[in-house]
User: Fold this.
Amino acid sequence: VGVQDFVLLDSHTSEKAFMNNLRKRYQENLIYTYIGTLLVSVNPYKELDIYTVTQMRLYRGVNFFELPPHLYAIADNAYRVMCSEYNNHFILISGESGAGKTEASKKILQYYAVTCPTTQQLQVVRDRLLLSNPVLEAFGNAKTLRNDNSSRFGKYMDIQFDFKGAPVGGHILSYLIEKSRVVHQNHGERNFHIFYQLLEGGEKDFLCWLGLERNPQKYSYLIQGRCAKVFSINDKNDWKIVRKAFSIIDFTEKDIEHLFGIVASVLHLGNIQFEEDSNGHAIIRDGTQIKWISKLLGAHLSILQEALTHRKIEARSEEVLSPLNVDLAFYARDAVAKAIYGRTFTWLVNKINGSLANKDSTRKTVIGLLDIYGFEVLDTNSFEQFCINYCNEKLQQLLIEMTLKAEQEEYEQEGIEWEPIPYFNNKIICDLVEQKHKGIISILDEECLRPGEATDLSFLEKLEEKVGDHPHFVTYALPLCILAQRENPSQDGMLGRELFLLEHPLAGGEVTYCAVGECGTAWKSPGIWGQGSGGDNLNYKISVATQFKSSLMSLIEILMSKEPSYIRCIKPNDNKEPGKFDDFLIQHQVKYLGLMEHLRVRRAGFAYRRKYELFLQRYKSLCPATWPYWHGPAAEGVERLIKHIGYKPEEYKLGRTKIFIRFPKTLFATED
Assistant:
């Protein structure tokens, strides 16, 4: 149905032809299609019988294009090349929320678990690699409007293999957990899964020890989206899976107690209410929740109360405590909850890494799996969305650069003349965001650090001044939104005690605005601060945007040192409905995933290339001289074969080890 490889489309520059081919295949449950070696995957929103152990064995060790397009072909190709050439690989899985990235990542892990060589000792490593997924999903995934199991963080996992090709260890890097979800969810969305799993599945005595009740409606942080119960999610069953996973990943009962003590303390924090005393200062009249937090965190009650109702002002050698009003106390409470959850997630990832670590010092090869949040343009785009979209721009830049480089290298190795390819280079977009001293992130940092009052409006003015004439930058100023509380919480530095290094907004009164790069990058920045490399030294601050930029640069370096494979995931409709193909929605994704751009690069020279041996094996029956056996060099056999078939000189080129065919119709005629 249709063509299995978009490269073989006759009208490869036509978006309409691209969409028609994708639609035809999707309607026949053919959810996978290639663009060369890149895999396009459309979420079927239903179970398909294509992930069985039989299917896994079918794809094992088979040449890439011999079988229909599949995730397993991508996974197997990366594995075989790694084993034969002893080099490192990565598989980049991208697409918007709900497109099936997390499922694709899990399917690839399962494929390696079933098809790689193993021993009883290695089975433990394999189980830990597989079971790290439900734990990270519980703490890092949530129900959103677009996806009932949406990853709210980016994940890069290295699977380490020994010289025999057996998986012997792993390492996980996580990026930008969406901490804001802990304290606020949009209508129709939930907090992170783990809160609901704990309440629904936790043993009665355990909940009692944590000071929790089973009903999620009792907790302020769990009910803002008004959908604590979701038909498609079985929290009780998921709790059992997570508990089992903890025991296999090597968590002790003490670890689990401490971990869920922290999770419970976040729920108690959300239920703390502040009242105003006669001086207009915030006080906590009902001490029930804070007593539970004190017990669960092992923090002194008076220190906790002080941290939530006062801020510390440092002036030279003096420290002065200044009381917070009620609005700022609620903000401090939420900031503490976000900080606790964010650091707990980091600890969890490190703990899992400890259990996956391979202590053997012999050289390993790795296959990295990058499951990264997708590019999205929402009605209101958060600061996190800006970081996410910037990340996608960088990865798109990497994809085009590495594809072009691979094409050029293959042509040179084969002795075929390289023809320069025109394409849109999004470096200009990336520079707009990240350039030192001139980019948006640097301007944001400067504005946050400068003396005097920094507001969203002053930041917007600075952007207009420095990058206003950039061809890919435009701003839209909306009406001034004066908050009820005009006091600027940032003027005296960090909220809370030394116990917490917290985030705080730029200003009380703010202009709501949106800055949009021409490729769709969009954000609304609340000016968030994170922890610097100086540990808990409050005088040393690095903005979250700069931290994210640095970690993204490190990730790009990791990827540049490996051989790439790509999976682009597409969401067919917004209703999670099987069989429904929403043309407008899919066309939008095809555009920003850069699929037409990738196809143009892949098709610029020759649509099809194959090693002489494989081409001869496939088509030798078409020529009496090569059938049934050809006894000379394969290259000469192919030359004899195509002359007999009648290929014209402009239709092909012969390289050192491969035949290159320019037009799809030439190949189709040969097939016919």
Summary: Confidence is low (pLDDT under 50) at residues 477-540. Residues 608-671 form a domain with the Alpha-Beta Plaits fold (CATH 3.30.70.1590). The first helix runs from residue 15 to 27.
